[in-house]
TrEMBL record:
Protein name: Stum, mechanosensory transduction mediator homolog
GO cellular component assignments: membrane
Coiled-coil intervals: none
Lipid bilayer topology: Multi-pass membrane protein
Transmembrane feature ranges: 54-83, 95-123
Compartments where found: Membrane
Chain positions covered by the region annotation Disordered: 1-30
Cross-referenced InterPro entries: SPEC3/Stum (IPR026673)
UniProt entry keywords in alphabetical sequence: Membrane, Transmembrane, Transmembrane helix
Pfam families attached to this UniProt entry: Spec3
Length: 133
């Protein structure tokens, strides 16, 4: 990812669409190594997760753990109350609201085969991670 040009290193960006990640070398460090930053490429459902206050995110995680989809459904309404999301600038508040409602319905309907329950827990963990940043 980094190339040597006459004794100096230059940073280059490498994008790999198959993995959905973007790696960027930031140049040499004090130890002679190269720092690489990796960013995850999010789909529309993942990008629609709202950034809520931390206590509300923890409550949604708790609800998602015991009643799959309920915390995600409640988080959909926080978008209407002003919670921010990565997708609002592209698609608008109404679309982000409905994407969150769709995610909640997917979690509820697939909870019977455990997929929705696991997805619901991970969704709640993502809410807490977003709230803590």
């Amino acid at each position: 990812m980094a190339q040597k040009d006459g004794g100096t290193e230059q940073g280059r960006v490498k994008t790999d669409d198959n993995l959905g990640t973007k790696a960027m070398s930031l140049g040499p460090t004090a130890g002679g190594g190269v720092v690489v930053e990796v960013r995850e490429k999010k789909g529309p459902l993942r990008a629609a997760i709202p950034t809520m206050p931390f206590p509300l995110a923890v409550i949604c995680l708790f609800l998602n753990t015991f009643i799959p989809g309920l915390g995600t459904f409640i988080s959909a309404f926080t978008v209407l109350c002003g919670a921010r999301s990565e997708l609002i600038s592209e698609r608008g508040v109404c679309c982000v609201f409905w994407l969150n409602v769709a995610a909640a319905l997917i979690q509820i309907l697939t909870a019977v085969i455990m997929v929705g329950w696991i997805m619901s827990i991970f969704w709640g963990m993502d809410m807490v991670i977003l709230a803590s940043q």
